[in-house]
Amino acid sequence: MKLKEVTEGKVRIFVPDPKEYMIEGKFDPSWAPVFYNPKMTFNRDLSVIVVSLLKPKIILDALSATGIRGIRYYVESWKSEQLILNDKNSTATSLIQINVKNNGIENAKIYNKDANVLLYEIKSEYIDIDPFGSPVPFILSSINATIRNGIVAFTATDLSPLEGSSRTSCRRKYDAINYKLSSSKELGLRILIGKIIREAAMLEKTVYPLFSFYADYYYRLFVRVESGARKADENINKNLKYFGECPRCGFQTFVDENCKIKCPICGENFIIIGPLYIGPLHNMEFLKRMIDIYNNFNYLSSFNRIQKLLNVIEKEAKYKSVFYNISKLASKLKVSAIPPIDSILECLGDASKSHFAPTGIRTDKGYEEIIRCVKNL
Ligand code: SAM
Fold it and tell me: What's phi and psi for 233, nearest 5 deg?
C-alpha cells in the first residue's frame, strides 16, 4: 500500500495515498484499504475539544481505521493512562502501529478484533463508535463496556433512515415509525437517542446527551451512561414520546401515544413518528464549559466553523421545542415570499436560529405567534 503523510490538528498520520485509489478522477475513501476521510476533520476537531474536558483515564477508539481519532485525543486532548485502538481490518491495525510510533506514543494498546468482541472483553471510561453508516450494531456492547459513568461517542452517517427517507430501514434498525417531516434533521437525532435509551435500559442503564450536533451528512452524539433500573425507567417515562406534524397547517408537537390524533389547529390527522427522545440535546453545563475553552483550540483548521456552530447551539439549546422549518411552513401556508429569518426572530422576540437548517427557527412561543410573524412580515 502506497502511503501519504497528512497533518490533521497536531498530528501527522500516514494514510493510503488517495492518488492510488482514484476511479474516473474521483477519490472515495471507502475504496482505499484503510479508511481516512478528510471531510470528517470537523467531527474529529470537535471531539478533541470534548475529550479535553472529559479527561478519561481510559480511551477506547473501537473502530480506529488509521488510528487518527484516538491518536489525536492522546496528543491534543489529554494524555490518558490507557489508549486503546482497535480495528477488525488487519491492514488498518498495521498502519495504526506505524501512526502511533510516528506520533511518539509508547503505551497504546492495539487490537485487531471485531469491536463487539473487544467490547465484551474490556471496559473503558470513554468509547468512540465511529462506524460506516449506522452505530446500531455497537450500541449495546459499548454501553455495556463503560465504567464510572463513562461516555460513549457515536457517529451516525445513515441519515436516510433516521430522517425518514428510508422508512422501512428506520423501522428495522431503530424500531421507530418515521416519515420525512419538516424538521426531520433534528428528529433523526432524537430517534437515534431514543434507540440508545431503549438499548441501555435492557442493561438497567440509561444515557443522557452531553453534546450533540448535525453536520454535513452525519450526526455526532456524546452520551453519559448511568446505571440503575429506576433511572432507566424514569428516563423512558419522561423522555421517550412521539412527535406529530400536521400535514395541512404545519403545527408540530410531542405526543404521548402512537395513535391517531387530530391537529388542534385545523382538525387534520397528524403524521406521527417515534418513539423518540424529547429531552435536551446537550448538558447545558458541559456546553458552557466547551464554549469557555474552545479558544484554546484556535490552531484547528475548522476553528471558525466550530465557533459558529457552538454560538448557534448555545442560543438554541435553551428552547425545549423542536425547530420550525420556516420555508416548509410557509409553503404549507401558501405564503409565497418567505420573510428573512432575522425578521422573524425579531418579530418573535424570544427565538433563535437552529444549526439543523438555515431556514430553521427555535422558540418556545406558540404556533399562532410563529404564523403571525411568518404571515404579517
Ligand atoms: N474512526 C475513523 C476515523 O475517524 O478516521 C474512521 C473509522 S471507519 C468509518 C470505520 C472502521 O471500522 C473501518 O476501518 C472498518 O475496518 C472498521 N470496522 C467495521 N466493522 C468493524 C467491526 N465490527 N469491528 C471492528 N472494526 C470494524
Answer: -65, -45
